[in-house]
Structure formats: structure tokens, C-alpha cells
Design goal:
This protein is mostly helical. It has one domain: ABC transporter involved in vitamin B12 uptake, BtuC (Orthogonal Bundle). It has 13 helices and 2 strands, in the order H-H-H-H-H-H-E-E-H-H-H-H-H-H-H. Strands 1-2 form a two-stranded antiparallel sheet. Strand 1 and strand 2 form a beta hairpin. The radius of gyration is 21 Å and the shape is globular. It starts with a helix and ends with a helix.
Length: 331
């Protein structure tokens, strides 16, 4: 455990160093434009939404699974809120009620994913791919493919509100990161997550209720995506039919770059937060430098492939060392 903890700290420290180097390079290359207060604030706001969704994805990837429906849940949550509170609708619900409804529906979608994966034995990739398509279709049906505007003024203002100079969206991300990091490190729920991701059969034999925990992991991931959807809706001041598209890929990229293993059992919230910041920094810097957006997509894709490659390389090397030690003992 001590060795694993040291490896995590080492990986997170490396990510922080990489992020600082990128920031310094962009500050120099853009002649200070990147490091301006307004740009950094904008970068953090952009990172916050994907960052919250990525934290939810962290729980799923640590189990060795994947959730492709998170982007669609982002779009649905914002759309439900807009429909229920829009001044253009036939009726209006109080803002807090609409938020509760949007988050409850998001959590239920996650629960259905968990049931499909655990009880239905459907591969997580297929189950969540189907849910992604289903939810995206539901968004288009509810909105008729149009933006829904007229959300309450107080909700719209949340996107530009600040506290101690830090945007409210970033505070939301920070609070969620702290709470979920605490859950992973100090609660039975978090310990169960790593146990299931490392070896599901061993976890079962040790008395862990796999079903209930899987329901909880997928529900929590979808709930956080729902929160991300509300954050996106307040930033757009509307429910957007295409809202959340591609967020699942950014979330996966953030988690993988943050050091989590697609094989399960490895991952941290801090790593994911740093991964989300690195991705958004590259995008932001690319825009300031006038790099073609399609080229930026290629670069981010290459980074994801390299991150997965190094993860597999390290695991293969450690496995080889373990086999060599075993042979030495037998000899």
C-alpha cells in the first residue's frame, strides 16, 4: 500500500509539473495573453463543467468500466431544468424543484446503467452506448431540436458570479472534488470501489455487495453529470439540444491523462482534476495561438493514446517483474 501511495503522489506531482510547464510556455508564446486574469478565469470556468463530469467518470473507470452516456445526461439535465422553469412554457416550477427533478432523473439513468451492467451482464461500453443514444433522442423529442430559453435570471447569473475572485462554477467543481476525494480515501464506499476495480471476484468473496455498489457508482457518475448539465445550462442561459456532446470523450481523456487505468483499480480525484486542466489548457492555448481546432482534436487524441500506451507499458513491465521474482523464489 505504501509503494502504491508513493506512485500516486509521484504521478500527480508529474502532472502538476507538466501543467505548470504548459502554462509557462503559453504565457511566453502568447505574450502574456494566456496568463491574463480574464483568460485564466475563462479557462477555469470551461474546465469546471468537464471537470465535474470527469470526476463522475473516475468512479466508473476505477471499476474497470466505462460510461459513454455522461455527455447525453449533461444535455438532458440542462434541458429538463430549462423546460421546467422557462417563462415560455405552459407552467413554471420553482428553480430548486426543477434542479431536484433534473438531478433525480440523471441519477435514475445511472441506476439503469448499473442494472444493465451488473444484472443484465451487458458490457459497460454497449449498455452506456445504448443509453447515450436513447437519452440524446429524448432531448431532441422534448426540445423539438430547439434551444429553450427564458430560464430564471438568478440561475443565469450563477455562471458569472464570483466569490473571493473565483467563479462560482469553479467553487462548485472544487467542493465536489474535495467531497469525492474524501469519499474515495476515507469511506467504505471508496474502499469498495478500488476493491471491485482491482479484482471483482476477490471483492465478492470478501463480502462486498457488488450489486449495490455498482448501482451506487453508476448513479453517482450520472448525478455528477446532471450537475455538470446544470452548470452548462447556466453558462449558456438556456437548454441546448446539442449540449454535452463530446463531453464523454473529454471526461475519459481527463481521467486517463490523470493516471487512472482502464483496467480498473487505479485512479484519483486530484489526478482527474489535473487531467481536466491539462486538456482545457491545451485547447485554450491552441485557440490563442490560432491553431486549427481540428489539429487540436488530433493532438488531444494522440495524448489519450500515449497515456493509455504508457499505462499498459507500466503494467506489463510490473507484471514481468512479478513473474521474474516468482521464478527466483521457486529456484
Amino acid at each position: 500500500m505504501a509503494i502504491r501511495k508513493k506512485k500516486k503522489i509521484f504521478a500527480e506531482r508529474n502532472l502538476l509539473i507538466i501543467l505548470i510547464i504548459i502554462w509557462m510556455f503559453l504565457a511566453f508564446a502568447t505574450k502574456g495573453t494566456f496568463s491574463s486574469f480574464s483568460n485564466i478565469t475563462n479557462l477555469l470556468r470551461q474546465s469546471a463543467i468537464n471537470g465535474v463530469v470527469a470526476i463522475g467518470m473516475t468512479f466508473i473507470i476505477i471499476t474497470g468500466g466505462i460510461d459513454l452516456s455522461v455527455g447525453s445526461v449533461v444535455g438532458l439535465s440542462g434541458m429538463i431544468y430549462a423546460i421546467l422553469t422557462s417563462s415560455r412554457g405552459d407552467f413554471q416550477l420553482p428553480s430548486f424543484v426543477a434542479i431536484a427533478v433534473a438531478l433525480a432523473i440523471s441519477a435514475v439513468i445511472g441506476l439503469v446503467n448499473g442494472i444493465a451492467v451488473h444484472d443484465g451482464k451487458v458490457p459497460a461500453f454497449i449498455a452506456t452506448l445504448g443509453m447515450m443514444t436513447l437519452v440524446r433522442g429524448l432531448i431532441m423529442y422534448l426540445s423539438s431540436g430547439r434551444m429553450v430559453t427564458g430560464v430564471p435570471l438568478g440561475f443565469r447569473e450563477f455562471a458569472v458570479d464570483t466569490f473571493l475572485g473565483i467563479p462560482a462554477l469553479v467553487w462548485t467543481w472544487l467542493i465536489i472534488a474535495i467531497v469525492t476525494a474524501f469519499i474515495l480515501k476515507y469511506t467504505k464506499f471508496g474502499r469498495n470501489l478500488y476493491a471491485i476495480g482491482s479484482n471483482v471476484e476477490a471483492a465478492r468473496l470478501s463480502g462486498i455487495n457488488i450489486r449495490i455498489n455498482m448501482y451506487g457508482f453508476y448513479s453517482l457518475a450520472a448525478l455528477l453529470s446532471g450537475i455538470g448539465g446544470l452548470m452548462l445550462a447556466t453558462r449558456m442561459a438556456a437548454g441546448v439540444p446539442t449540449g454535452g456532446q463530446g463531453y464523454e470523450l473529454d471526461a475519459i481523456a481527463s481521467v486517463v491523462i490523470g493516471g487512472a487505468s482502464l483496467n480498473g483499480g487505479v485512479g484519483t480525484i486530484l489526478g482527474t482534476v489535473l487531467g481536466a486542466l491539462i486538456i482545457q489548457t491545451i485547447r485554450n492555448g491552441g485557440n490563442l495561438l490560432g491553431v486549427d481546432p481540428f489539429i487540436m482534436q488530433i493532438i488531444i487524441g494522440a495524448i489519450i493514446i500515449l497515456a493509455v500506451f504508457f499505462d499498459q507499458y507500466i503494467k506489463t513491465r510490473e507484471k514481468g517483474k512479478g513473474i521474474k521474482k516468482l521464478f527466483k523464489r521457486e529456484a
